Amino acid sequence: MMSMLAAAVFLGAAAFSARWTWWRRKADGLPVLVYHKIGRAPAGSRLGELWVTPEKFRAQVAWLLGNGYTTLLFSDLLKAHKGEKNLPAHPVLITFDDGYENNYAEAYRILKELNARGNIFVVYNTIGKANLWHDPAAEPWINMAAPEMLREMLASGVIELGSHTMNHPDLEKISFEDAAWEIAESKKQLQDALGAGICAFAYPYGAGACNPALRESVFKAGYTFDFSFRQGKTPWPWQREAGPIDRLFIRGGDNNLDLYLQLTRGASRLF
Q1: What does the alpha-carbon distance between residue 263 and residue 252 come to, in Å, rounded to a whole number?
Q2: Considering the entire predicted model, what is its pTM?
Q3: DSSP-derived secondary structure letter, 190
């Protein structure tokens, strides 16, 4: 009986240690959280982990603020990068990929109420449309933020924008010329349409983040920062020669323990 109990305890501890990486050494560096959709996944969605409920998002932002973290805008990071200001003691960037309408309806509202800040990487050609890069037979289309929503968020000082290309392609599956156009044209169009400087770029699917030629095209287009989808924290001060800025993927099933481990260990799970 005791051996069965001991085995159960061992298996439970092993499962806990596989699910939550409490045993990892603490990781230094800048934490950058990446969200996608704030809301509830529609019927038929195969990407449920990309949806974080408004209640859970609010709890996570409140946890950050209650534990001494300062949420930053891209412009804050730019000033720190240029040596014009120091980062706060516990900085964190909250980012969203793609630019969904629910980022405006839910995330923006919550950030504003809590006096926090966030940043959205926008796919230019889907503004006011839908997530057209998805096959609707496999993943339902949902609304993207309209131009007036983006302008309101920018004017509020709560949200700043970065580029996520023109059409959300896998940059390593198209020609280099087309990829360079996706990168440069999205910056130009966002700036022209919204009247705001764009200093940050995120690679769709993370593809191309380790490709030297594609990275060079990002900086040639005039961006200061490029962000990967690779899991982890990035040493600060950041040197672009060392690679893109890594991020911490927040899944729909994550809780505040996951958030803590992401921020301190650079990951909350093994896979």
Answers
A1: 17
A2: 0.92
A3: H
The per-residue pLDDT for range 78-87, each reduced to its tens digit, is 999 999 999 9
pLDDT at 1 exceeding the cut of 80: no
User: Does 10 have pLDDT greater than 80?
Assistant: no
**Position 254 pLDDT exceeds 80:** yes
Q: Is 20 a residue whose pLDDT tops 90?
A: no
Superfamily of 27-265 according to CATH: Glycoside hydrolase/deacetylase (3.20.20.370)
pLDDT digits (tens, 9 = 90+) for 225-247: 999 999 999 999 999 999 999 99
Q: Which helix (H) or strand (E) holds 247?
A: strand 245-249
Residue 109, C-beta contacts closer than 8 angstroms, at least 6 positions apart: none
Identify whether the C-beta of residue 123 lies closer than 8 Å to the C-beta of residue 98: yes
∠ at Cα 234 (237, 159), nearest 5°?
A: 85
Place of tokens 């959300």: 168
What is the residue extent of each domain of the chain?
A: 27-265
Question: CA-to-CA distance for 92 and 114, rounded, in angstroms?
Answer: 15
Task: Report yes or no: 254 and 269 within 8 Å, Cβ to Cβ.
Answer: no
> Counting Cβ atoms within 10 Å, is residue 64 exposed (0-12), middle (13-18) or buried (19+)?
buried
Query: Is 53 in contact with 252 (CB distance < 8 Å)?
Result: yes
Question: Whole-angstrom Cα distance, residue 17 to residue 121?
Answer: 33
Q: Say which DSSP state 173 is in.
A: S
Cα separation of 141 and 125, whole Å?
A: 15
Q: Which two tokens stand for residue 241?
A: 């020669």
**CA-to-CA distance for 109 and 188, rounded, in angstroms?**
28
Q: Is 45 exposed, middle or buried (0-12, 13-18, 19+ CB in 10 A)?
A: middle
Joined together, the tokens standing for residue 183 give 């990168």
